[in-house]
Amino acid sequence: MAVTRTGATARAVTAGVVMIAWVALLWVLEGIDTATGHSLDTYGVSPREPAELADVVPAAFLHSGWEHVASNSVPLLVLGFIAALGGIRRFAAVVLVVIVTSGLGVWLTAPPDTVTLGASGVVFGLFGYLLVRGFVDRRPLDIAVGVIVATVYGSLLWGVLPTDSGISWQGHLFGLAGGVAAAFVLRRPREPQNYVTV
């Protein structure tokens, strides 16, 4: 199916608006959190406590300080924009799969007496999704995008290793897994082949 230039422009504008609004929301929430003595941090995920399952989604929108939200903002903006170019509904579904997978992974495996919050699980999920989407959908353009994303952001993969006790490698690892899973679960239907007989 061909996409007109007008349609492509509209998708780009929509993707840009969505991602700018999302990142702005993260900064507003951090401002509220700071102004209220970090009262929003209670919505982070504490592992293996049943009541904490309700915090799996809000935890992905909260951060532990300005430096934390700043470190997530640019990769989230870039990777989210690229992913959202494929359509907002599909993008929303990908993000939901990533957030739930990352959050449940943290809930199951994080060390006791910890609170995990931040959008880095989503960043890793979008990275994983963009990395494999083209191969799953068999679309050369998306494969090329995946190669570029791997070249620019490939160093993110070090974040899935338990090298720093203050960073949730669990959220990163399960976010990455969620993004890869989303590429398979939400694969685009293949267009029918036109065969010519002779």
Task: Briefly characterize the structure.
The protein has 198 residues and is mostly helical. Helices cover 61% and strands 0% of the residues. It contains six helices and no strands.
What does it look like?
It is a single chain. This protein is an all-alpha fold. It has one domain: Up-down Bundle (Rhomboid-like fold), CATH 1.20.1540. The radius of gyration is 18 Å and the shape is globular. The two termini are 26 Å apart. The protein has 6 helices and no strands.
Overview features:
single chain, 198 residues, 6 helices, 0% strand, globular
Q: According to CATH, what is the class?
A: Mainly Alpha
The number of E-state strands comes to 0
Give me the CATH fold name.
Rhomboid-like fold
Shape: globular
Helix and strand topology:
Blueprint (H helix, E strand, L loop, with lengths): L4 H31 L30 H19 L3 H22 L10 H18 L2 H14 L15 H17 L13
Helix pairs in contact: 1-2, 2-4, 3-4, 3-6, 4-5, 4-6
